[in-house]
Amino acid sequence: MVHRSKLTRRFTSTPGKPAIGVLSALVLFALCSGAAANASSDDISGQPDLIMDSPTKTANDANEVVLSQRVNEILSEYSFLPAIGEFNRCLVNDQWRTPAVSPWQRIASSASIQRPVDENIDQELQILLNDKYWTERKLKNADPYLHHVIERLKARNLPVELALLPIIESNYDPAARSPNNAVGLWQFVPATARALGLTINQWLDERKSIERSTEAALDYLEFLHADLGSWPLAIAAYNAGPSRLRHRIKKHGQDDFAIWDLHLPEETHRYVAKFFALSELIARADELDVALPAADEKTDFVRIETGTRIGLDAAARLANLPTDQIERLNHELITRGTPPEGPHEIVIPANAVSTFTTNLHTAIENAAPLFVPARYHLVEAGDSLGTIANRYNTSVDDLRRLNNIDGSHIRSGQKILVAQQDEAMPSSGKGKTPAYQVREGDTLSQIASMYGVQRSVLANSNNIDDDNLLRVGKILIIPARYLPAGKSMIRYSVKAGDTLSEIAYRFKVSLKKIKDLNPLLANARKIQPGQKVLIPTSGL
Hints:
By secondary structure, the chain is mainly alpha-helical. It folds into 5 domains: about 20-95, no CATH class; about 105-285, Lysozyme, CATH 1.10.530; about 300-365, no CATH class; about 375-415, Membrane-bound Lytic Murein Transglycosylase D, Chain A (Roll); about 435-535, LysM domain (Membrane-bound Lytic Murein Transglycosylase D, Chain A, Roll), CATH 3.10.350.10. The chain has helices spanning about 20-35, 60-75, 105-110, 120-130, 130-140, 145-155, 165-170, 190-195, 210-230, 230-240, 240-250, 265-285, 310-320, 325-330, 355-365, 385-390, 395-405, 445-450, 455-460, 500-505, 510-515, 520; strands at about 90, 95, 300-305, 345-350, 375-380, 415-420, 435, 475, 490-495, 530-535. The strands form 5 sheets. It has a two-stranded antiparallel sheet with strand order 1-2. A hairpin with a 2-residue loop joins strand 1 and strand 2 (about 95). Helix 10 packs across helix 12 (about 265-285). The chain is elongated and about 80 Å long. It starts with 19 loop residues before the first helix and ends with a strand. The model is unreliable at about 1-60, about 75-100 and about 420-435 (pLDDT under 50).
C-alpha cells in the first residue's frame, strides 16, 4: 500500500477555466466511478484496479466511451495533469492507495508453461485440496522470499511459475537440509552447488543464501531448458538430473513424446505432477475455494560490504531490527558472522540501510565490537536443551532456532551452535584498563601468564576461579596496577584461525595500533599460527 499525505496546496481559477480543486474532484469522480470498471487487477499489465466506494456500480459501454472522451478533453487543457491511463490512484479517506497485488496473483496471471494432460497431476491437486489448511500454510511459508524469486524470474524472462519449485524442494526454508545433504531453498547437493559457483566452507554455505542460491538455480534451470528443449523436461531434470533425462529420451527414440512416456523414477513423476498441481491450484484458487496468502509488503533487501568482520547480533543492533529478522536474510553465515578473511558482506532490509550504514560508520570510528565468535557445544549424556541454555546464558528457543531443531530431542555427540552475546567492554573511566576476550581453549593461568600477572589476581579481579566458568567471548579485566613495571605491551602467539582484526577486537585495541607496532604484518594478507604479535596493554 502506498500512502501519500493529503494535498494541501490551494490553486486559484483562471478566467474561462474551472478552479483546479473542482477540476481535480471532477476527474477523480469520473475515474473512480467509471473508468475503473474495466481496469485490470494485475499490476503487471500496468493497469491496477482503482479503489472505488461502490465497486458494484458499472456503466454501459457507450457511457464509458463518452465519459473517457470528456475526461480526456478536460485533461488536455491542463498538460501538467496525468493522462487517464496513468491516473491509477484515487483519493480515499485522505490517503492515496494502490491496490496491493499478491505474488500469487502475479503467478496466476503470468503463468506460461502449458500444463500436460495427466491423471497424476489431478491426483496431486486433490491431495492439496484434501487438506486446505496445510496447503495454505505451505504457501504462507514462501512470504519472506517469494517476491525476490519472482522479480529475478521476471528480470531474466523466465516463466514466473518456476517460483513454485522451492515449495516442493524445501517449503521455502533457506536452512532446510535433506537426508542426502541437499541444502537451502533450492536444495543443492555440494557437488552441484560448487559447479554452479556457490561457496561452501567452514564460514559460508551459499546454498542458504536467498539471492545467490536463487541466481544459481535460475542459471541451472535455464541451462536445462536450453539442453532439453522444454520446461516440463527441465523441471524433471532438476529433480532427476540431466544425464538421466538425456538417456531416457535417447532410449525412447521418438521426437513426439510426453514426459510420462519416459519411464522416469516415481519420485520424478510426482515431482513434475506436484509442480503443475500447485500451478493449477493458484490459477483456480477462487474456483477451488483456496485462500491464497494476502499481499504483504515486499521484503526488499540489500547486500552491504562492511569493510570489517561483523556478527548478526551487531548487525541487528546497528539496523535497529530484531536479530531474527537479520538471521532470516543471512542463513549462509555459518558462524553467525562474516568470515575472518572476508567477504565482509551482510544482507539488510532495504528500509533499514540508512540506519545501518550510519550506525556502522560510528561504530567503526569508535572501535566498537562488531563480532563475537559463536561456539559449539558437544552434547554429552544427560544434556538437554535446557541445561545447555543455562550453561551458556541463552534460551532454549534461541538454541532451537540456531540449530533448526523442532522439538527437544538431541543426541550424544551432536554439535549445538551457541550464539555468544555481545558484551560491553569494561572501562576504568579513563579508557586505560587492559581487557581480554576469552577464546576457545583459554585458561586463567595462560591468560595471567600472557600479561605477567598472578593467576589469583586475575581470578579475584574478575570474580571467577574456575576454568570451567570461562565462557568464550567473556571479557576479562586485566588489573593495570598489578602489571609488571614498564609492561606496556605483550607478545601474543598467533593461533589457527586468527586474523589481525580478531586479535585487535579480542584485546580491545585498535587495528591501526596493532599494525603500527607490527609493520611486517601490517600488509600481510594472512597471518600464520606461531607468529608473534605485539599488543599494547594501555588503552586505545
